[in-house]
Every structure is written in structure tokens, then in C-alpha cells.
Amino acid sequence: MKKICLIASLITVFALSSASVNAQYYFFDGDYYENPVLYEAGVSVNAMNSLTDLGGKKGIGEKFLKDLNLGYTSISGGIFFSVSYKNAVALRLEGTFGKVSSDDKILAGINDAAKNRFNRNLNFRSNISEVAALVEIHPMYIFVDWPAKETTPPRTSPYLLAGVGYFSFNPQTKIGNRTIDLQPLSTEGQGFAEYPNRPIYKLNQLNIPMGAGVKYELSPLVNLRAEVVYRKLFTDYLDDLSTTYIDPALFDKYLTPQKAANAKILYDRQIVKVAGINGKRGTEKNNDAYFTANLKISVIIGRERIRR
């Protein structure tokens, strides 16, 4: 939370210091002056999906979008506030809220290497809450001085963005009609002395958002945006799956009787028992990720109407 407050403070300082720059520097159109510092507040509707060890497409699991299954895309939403300088660079504070999920059952009927994932028979879902501080770079305004050209700037502006985020997740699955949190069950021996290289993963972590978009000025006071934002994560446990199966007797050693009973049901759900203790459960060499495709609408604050 301290990091989020610091980010918000930096944006405020940037906005206040930039506001002291000369006011109008050219006409936006026949009705509004353009200001060097503009504010923007808006909302977004997003399509959210994830890339994890679960589900995917036929064949051997591959990196990045090659293993993406669109069937588990869900609708998410967000709010944001940004401060821009001469439409070229902007600082944005954004909150995003959604859900990710995947299920090995999506591979039913496939008779290639992916059949092993179907046989593994695992699934998960997790709510996602994220706060991110982002920097936008608009090349068309960085490399072209529109006031000097005495030309009206284009209404469309492609941009790149990157920053740092702080997100929460909580992988879950079901036993019958009961929803079970997976992290407290240490399904792969996280936190057990027998597995010193498997610490209990944290449900609140940093990530690195990065992406690209395009902004369209619908009017002097309204912007529309379309963008895609990918989140680089520092965990392979978004889906509670990463390494190998463990000896189920260890659950009784470290967990309460109720948690141990749930863990024994959920850690190994193979349809046909193939892998045993220390058998392959997931692939730890690649961290998980999630991403969103966003449609945004926002209000522009700071353009001044020309007095006639």
C-alpha cells in the first residue's frame, strides 16, 4: 500500500509542477484552446485471459500466445486517471479487476502429447485485483512539433506503455459444490521441510505491465482507446501448479486434518494414474502471465473553451 501511495504522490507532483508551465500553446480547434498539461479520467471494459501450465492447445505446451485458449477469456473492468504533457508523455494510475481460469478438460478428445494434460485433470480459477502505475509514450507527438508546423494535430495517436503493478490473486477449485482455496493446501509441498526450494507463494505480488494501444479523440472532451496489456509475473503459481507431485503422507504432517483431507483429494486428480511421487505435475521453467484487451472511454480535463 505504501508503494501505491508513493506512486499516486509522484503523479500529483508531476501534475502540479507541469501545470505551472505556460498555459495555452495553440488552438485545439475553433472552440477550444489546447493546454500543455491535460488530465484524463475514464473507465474500461476488458477481455482477460491467462497463460499458465493448465489447459492450452493441442500438442506440447508452447510459450506465450501459441498455447492460448480463447475459450477461457472473461470480462473484466477498470478505472484510470492520467496526466499528460503536450500529448506526448503521460503518467497513468489504473485499477483493473477481473478473473482468470483454465481447465485441463478443454483438451478432451485430443490424442497427441496434450493428452497427458487432459489426463492430469486439474483446473483453477482466480479473481484478479491490480493497481498499476504506467508511462505512455506517444511517438506522433514526441517527434512532431504540431504547433510549430501550424497544423492541427491528428485525432488518432498510437502509443506504447509500460510500468509496474501490484496485484492480488487466489487460485481456487471445487470439491463438489465447495470452493476451496488452493494456496493454504501446499499441493506441491510449498513450505514443507522436505522441499526447501518450494517456499509458500505470496498472494500479493508485483508485476510488469507492458503493451500498446491507440487513442482516438472523439471530441475535445472525450477520448476512446483500444489497447492490449500483457503482465509479466514473477510467479509460476497463478494456477497453483509448477513442479512435481509429492508424497501425500506429508499433508498429515504439516496440515490440519481438514486441510490434509482436501489436499489429498486435490493435489493429484489424474484420470489414469501415470505419474507417482516426484512425477511431473507442471513445468517450472516458465512463469505464468495474464493479459487484457481493453476498450476505454474517458473525459479530458484541461482544455479551455474560447470566449467569444
Element-by-element helix/strand order: HEEEEEHEHHEEEEEHHEE
Give the assembly state of these chains: single chain
The main pleated sheet reads as:
8 strands, antiparallel, barrel
> How many beta-strand runs?
13
Structural category is alpha+beta
* Percentage beta strand: 35-45%
Count of domains: 1
Largest beta sheet: what is the strand line-up?
A: 3-4-5-6-7-10-11-12
- Portion in helices: 10-25%
Mean pLDDT: 87
The value of Rg in angstroms is: 24 Å
CATH class label: Mainly Beta
Head-to-tail CA distance between termini: 48 Å
CATH topology label: Porin
Query: What general form does the structure show?
Result: elongated
Number of helices: 6
Q: Specify the CATH architecture.
A: Beta Barrel
The unreliable regions are 10-25
Polypeptide structure, described:
With 308 residues, the chain is an alpha+beta fold. The chain has 6 helices and 13 strands. Strands 3-4-5-6-7-10-11-12 form an 8-stranded antiparallel beta barrel. A hairpin with a 4-residue loop joins β1 and β2 (32-34). The chain starts with a helix and ends with a strand.
Draw up the topology in text.
Layout (H helix, E strand, L loop, with lengths): L1 H18 L6 E2 L4 E3 L2 E15 L22 E12 L3 E15 L11 H6 L2 E15 L1 H4 L3 H4 L6 E13 L3 E4 L2 E4 L22 E16 L2 E12 L15 H6 L2 H10 L22 E13 L2 E2 L3
Antiparallel strand pairs: 1-2, 2-13, 3-4, 3-12, 4-5, 5-6, 6-7, 7-10, 8-9, 10-11, 11-12
